[in-house]
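Re: that chain you flagged

S.,

Sorry for the slow reply, it's been a week of failed gels. I finally had a moment to sit down with the sequence you sent. For the record, here it is as I used it:
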Amino acid sequence: MKIHEVTALLEQQGTWVRRNVKTRDHLLFGDDQQEVRGIGICWVASKGAILEAVKQRVNFIITHENPFYQCSTQMHTAALKAAEEKKRILKEHGISVYRCHDVWDCIKEYGVADQWAFRLGFTFEERFVSSYYQAASIPEMTAEALAHHVAEALRQDGELGVYMFGNPQKKIHRIAIGCGAATNLYELLEFYPDAVIVSDDGINNYDAAQYAIDQHIPMIVVNHAGCEIAGCKAMVPWLRKHLHSSSICYLEEGYTIHYYTTGS
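Prediction finished late last night. Pasting the structure tokens below so you have them in one place:
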């Protein structure tokens, strides 16, 4: 099996992706005519993930995020040098890298959006296949209890906490979530939530947090990687099923955040 056969299989699933206009899903490094020896999946092909691929004799990495830092011809010099070091390792070991983002964010059941909802454990309303957003009515709990619930859901994927803006004692009956960096607060408002769950890369403090505080909407913030890794891990069994191959593994990228508090 060649790499282009695997990427074609993935791209066929994304009927909502406007590939003729714009997509993030491309071969970023290597040769799509290369024979696949082993496939490694990761949220981002960090240097650690690449070295793990070398150890596992993986020659095709599927990464959700861009492993080369900045999509620009005007990169910071330090980032450019670090990207070149990654590419040197990839070339030395004959490893190709494909980014699968737009398809895997929204693919039903196994993708990032639905796996994040499954991790949270609530019954969410039907999501449009091309949408990053969904909502659920939940048993009444305080915003603080909801934050603890979310933190516990993240634990199995290596995340150890969340933080929150707003009143911890507000009673919550309805929530809205996005996935990854697609957590635009103003779009989540269309679901009339009592609280929202967003990612650190999907909001900012001077706008979204300020609005949430002013409008008394508790906003629970999780790490971008933390709410997407479950979906990336689910690509492993999906590919094993569709490719009838066991030579597929998950590559740990080292994105655990360590939280330090005053203990108050």
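What I noticed first: The chain has a mean pLDDT of 95.

Talk soon,
D.
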